[in-house]
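Subject: for your reference before the review

Hello V.,

The reviewers asked for a structural picture of the protein, and I figured it would be easier to keep everything in one thread rather than splitting it across files. Below is the amino acid sequence we used in the manuscript, unchanged from the supplementary table.
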Amino acid sequence: MATGAELFVDSMEKLGIRLIFTLVGDHLNEVLSVAGRRGIRVVDFRHESGVTHAADAWGRMHRKPAISLVTGGPGHTNSLTGIATAYQAASPLIAVSGAPSAALAGRQVFQVIDQVGMAAPVCKWAAQPASGAQIPYYLGKAYQEAVSGRMGPVHLTIPVDMFAGEAVNPLPLPKPSAQPAAAPASAEVLRALRLLEKAERPVVIAGSGVWWADAGAELKQFLRKTSLPYYSVTMGRGVVPDNARNNFGYADGALNKAVHKAFQEADVVLVLGKRIDYRLALGGPRLFSGNAKFIQVDIHAQELGLTRALELGICADVKSTLAAMTQALGRRSWKARVEWIRAQRSYRDAWKKQLAATASDRSRPIHPAAFFEELAKALPPDILYSWDGGDFIHWGRATLPAMTGGGWLRLGPLGTIGSALPNSIAMQMAHPDRPVVMITGDGSLGFYLAELDTLVRHNLPVVIIVGNDAGWGLERELQGELCNSTVACELRATRYDVVMQGFGGAGENIERLDQVGPAIRRAFRARKPYLLNVNVRGARSPFTEWQLSGKKK
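And here is what came back from the structure prediction:
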């Protein structure tokens, strides 16, 4: 007779999952032992939030659920930040927490808390099976919930006695059913095309939905036939490379000042798989004209028209919608709006010129803009990025191009700084033959510093770039401007390259721009975890300028 742990691992394998992100604990010993004997890949971390962040990142890159497995009590509470991050990012994480024996329920036993109740607000679904025999049913249901409609995390609490005990008459695993793509109505497709074709100054903005729908081929074909100017944001970055024709880069006004003019002048805006949220200034006058007609395509009906009145809302799968639009065009291709495209190009070039002028500062300490200009010359062409948050990072996001779908991994709408390190672990695991760079600040690195050990133990050759300005740079800039003083914003100029060496990796300290290129090349040649501690000055990024301009009004 099988134990609950054996049923759990059996069910995982039937669901096509052969990887567990975890941090060991008493509640997990049975299930981890079974997984190890079965040859399941077990990647162990140093903090439970790192576990759930990495599983979230794996799910984002593969567009299907990953499993995090943590112990109960504080292990569970530690994991909640990663689960909440996945919830905001609509990432299909199956977050499993162990727990004390269910046979002791209602008694004052060690590490008992309401884990399901705690997880429920940041999950699509949260539950606890009543017995080990129910584990296959609950895991199958968890998988289905995670991938249905707009994807998102789910949670299961499984007490230790359910893993360890024999399961009598186990319930069968409900196999996930195929999710039919929600197709748009033909009348909606034709109306959208009429609005776009009649427009004088249309733009296309793509978000994470084009990545989740695996709509890259359809999007490229649609853009080829329509010659529409294109912008991307969130996980839409890189689905169409930034150097593609009529691709004008970031749709984020905080990082691409070109959109301040381009979006204000647009008369029709097609938004594909993107919430009209804070990144798009809620569709309001800070970025868009009140007269602009919005077409929004989203699989989640509740998003349509939520913050901006729409001319047309299409509740459908982005991939199916783009395919239907291209099919409706037939052999016909639209003529490019030469003057409108020329205007977009001039806005983009003016912004790039402004960044280049800032980067021309060659004094010391290194200006972040100058550093990223040098970095761009040395990075491998097939590089994948794991971005953190903070002033230093935002200079890079404004400067470097996104060239690969799924290769521009960000924190998500929760803005969980520090998560770029566990994210980079999952990214390197997912792409063992591709170079991965993690870009962070000294403040953000501190959250999951011990995961440097995880990189080394699992031999993952991520190159980490730390912009070290000895402080919480973004908050220092905001406080200094808005409060005329700073509090709790200073850190020590710690040598994080030495910290990495202490964990068994390699590292270098960079103080001059002429050191950047050679150090980057050495780091990627080393094929081991490598940290570059870059001494930079605090310099207010375009992102922070955008934040301040909004707060001052």
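For the response letter, the relevant points are probably these. The chain has a mean pLDDT of 95. The first strand starts at residue 19 and ends at 22.

Happy to draft the paragraph if you're swamped.

O.
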